[in-house]
Write a structure and sequence with these properties.
Order of helices and strands of chain B: HEEEEEEEEEEEEEEEEEEEEEEEE
Structural class of chain B: mainly beta
CATH topology of the largest domain in chain A: Immunoglobulin-like
Number of domains of chain A: 2
CATH class of the largest domain in chain B: Mainly Beta
Strand order of the largest sheet of chain A: 1-3-7-5
Order of helices and strands of chain A: EEEEEEEEEEEHH
Largest sheet of chain A: 4 strands, antiparallel
Shape of chain A: rod-shaped
Radius of gyration of chain B: 42 Å
Oligomer: heterodimer
Radius of gyration of chain A: 52 Å
Number of strands of chain A: 11
CATH architecture of the largest domain in chain A: Sandwich
Helix content of chain A: 25-40%
Strand content of chain B: 35-45%
Helix content of chain B: under 10%
CATH superfamily of the largest domain in chain A: Immunoglobulins
Number of helices of chain B: 1
Largest sheet of chain B: 6 strands, mixed
Largest interface: A-B, 58 and 62 residues
Structural class of chain A: alpha+beta
CATH topology of the largest domain in chain B: Immunoglobulin-like
């Protein structure tokens, strides 16, 4: 037996064309280009173009996920409030990029299916329900795109690295000089000194030997004066 | 003796002649130095302003409070004068314009937009700039301006002029020109009607068929095209909140001529419907589109009333 159970959705005969609270937002998506490990804050405006105040709440965006990378964190301020008639409210959106992510990755909210942008939704509709049927809330949705970027070159870090490398090189040179070069020079100088001493000793010995030899040899007769002339004459 | 007397008489006569001659030009100069000098100083007014330019940034359908100070001076005049004000026909940006009447003036600063509209013909503001004097040769008075951007005004930089002039009867100064710029920003609004949907009584296992409930989404102030996004919550049994049926039993559609099953199931997170709210213009400052909803009740659902929240969002 087929049961037809009647559902009594209470009739709320509101078919008026009355224009309700007018919630608005500044047009255009938000684009964040955030360095790894850094953050960026952008602002946009929500508006109340109507004659009655609008209580609002903010729903954080849902970004797509990228395998092997953390999804950036989004924080928004304020998360709720009341827009006075014909007033505006600045919404501050800050995106924090995990430092472990790769550069050049793109996340979005409210652009592709399965994601959601920043939602500002009225807290209560201008027509109050008695609790039956479907209550329809108005909101504005802000799409956002987040791109990871390489952190900029830190000139102080580079200078620091250069200084450290320079110090290491200088210390290495000093150690090499005192451990290798200087001992080698000392050894060389010592060897040279010994060599010179040996040479000097040898020269001294040669000199002494020569002197001894000279003493042992008989002395030659000294030639008389005119002996050469006499010898020449004799040859003739 | 006689000779000495002659010399004395001669010296006396010579002295007398000398002093007589000396006295003649002195008497002549005194008599010819008296000149009657007349100068006629008329009542005069001058006008200068500070600053010479103002720039406002605003959204269509919104306004700036009438509190932008313009100081109107009379530097060097000698009579009091009233400030007269008028403006160019429009503030223009290409072929688009904002009528000068959207610029308001007021003698005092206001915390909201209000006062008197600037017109294209000179208007006496009755704001008095005091008479400059020899000790105070420059006098001034303040006047405050504000602007409202009409709904549907396209985004852009609109420029125009507002003129100021001190006048006193038939005496008027030359006018001073204030350069006015309005930077109109891009925005979209959302307004829903109705904000409640009564689907009526539906049997369990049945649906609304080709009967759709439309929600009119209106942008009555903006200037940018918007796309409708929609999502909702699960249906909750009013007698026992633990009993629910799924959100996707509600269908949305851009058309009300299709069957229930041809609709798109409502989801728990926003989806773009592809339904467009055209950008409003000044000639058509309110644009709208309709999104339709139907519901099907799953078999076995307990008798009673159920509620659901539907969120409709414009994105621009």
């Amino acid at each position: 037996m087929k049961h037809y159970i009647l559902f009594s959705f209470v009739f709320l005969a509101i078919f008026s064309t009355f224009v309700n609270a007018q919630l608005g937002e500044q047009a255009g998506p938000l684009f964040f280009n955030v360095t790894l490990g850094g953050s960026e804050t952008l602002n946009y405006t929500i508006l109340n173009g109507g004659d009655s105040p609008i209580g609002f709440r903010v729903v954080l965006p849902v970004l797509n996920s990228i395998p092997h990378n953390e999804t950036p964190t989004v924080s928004i301020s304020p998360m709720n409030g009341t827009l006075a008639p014909h007033s505006q409210q600045l919404i501050h959106v800050t995106v924090y990029m995990p430092s472990s992510d790769k550069p050049g990755l793109v996340w979005n909210g409210g652009v592709t299916p399965g994601t959601s942008g920043i939602q500002v939704i009225e807290v209560s509709p201008s027509q109050v329900s008695s609790g039956m049927g479907a209550t329809v809330y108005a909101g504005v949705l802000k799409a956002l795109t987040v791109e990871s970027a390489k952190p900029p070159l830190n000139i102080m870090l580079i200078i620091g690295i250069i200084l450290v490398v320079a110090v290491v090189v200088v210390i290495g040179i000093v150690i090499y000089y005192y451990k290798v070069v200087l001992p080698a020079r000392i050894r060389k100088a010592e060897a040279r000194r010994k060599e010179l001493a040996a040479v000097a000793q040898a020269a001294k010995a040669r000199k002494a030997k020569a002197r001894k030899k000279a003493k042992a040899r008989p002395k030659a007769k000294p030639r008389k004066r005119g002996a050469r002339k006499a010898a020449r004459r004799r040859r003739r | 003796m006689k000779r000495s007397l002659n010399w004395f008489i001669f010296a006396l006569v010579a002295s007398a002649v000398f002093f007589a001659l000396l006295s003649i030009p002195i008497n002549a100069a005194t008599s010819s130095g008296q000149v009657a000098a007349n100068v006629n100083v008329p009542g005069t007014l001058y006008t200068s302003i500070s600053p010479n330019s103002v720039a406002w940034s605003q959204y269509p359908g919104a306004s700036n409070a009438t509190n932008t100070l313009i100081t109107v001076f009379d530097n060097g005049g000698n009579i009091p004068g009233n400030i007269f004000i008028w403006g160019s026909t429009d503030l223009t940006y290409g072929t688009n314009n904002i009528a000068i009447g959207n610029v308001m003036w007021n003698p005092t600063a206001l915390t909201s937009y209000g006062g008197n509209a600037v017109t294209t013909t000179a208007v006496n503001t009755m704001i008095l700039v005091a008479k400059p004097t020899l000790t105070t040769p420059s006098t001034n008075s303040p006047i405050y301006l504000g602007i409202s951007i009409p709904s549907g005004t396209p985004a852009g930089l609109y420029t125009g002029s507002v003129y100021f002039e001190n006048e006193n009867g038939s005496v008027a100064s030359t006018s001073a020109t204030l350069s006015v710029t309005a930077n109109v920003q891009s925005t979209c609004y959302i307004s829903l009607s109705p904000t409640l949907i009564n689907f009526g009584t539906i049997a369990s296992g049945a649906n609304t068929g080709t009967t759709w409930n439309g929600i009119i989404d209106t942008d009555a102030n903006g200037n940018a095209q918007a796309t409708i996004n929609v999502y909702g919550s699960n249906w909750i049994y009013s007698s026992n909140t633990a009993i629910t049926f799924y959100v996707s039993n509600t269908m949305w559609s851009a058309s009300n001529t299709v069957s229930y099953s041809s609709g798109n199931g409502l989801t728990l997170s926003p989806v773009s419907t592809g339904i467009i709210i055209p950008a409003p213009t000044q000639s058509q400052p309110s644009t709208s589109n309709t999104i339709y909803f139907g519901v099907g009740v799953p078999g076995g659902a307990p008798v009673g009333a159920y509620t659901q929240n539907i969120i409709i969002e414009n994105s621009c």
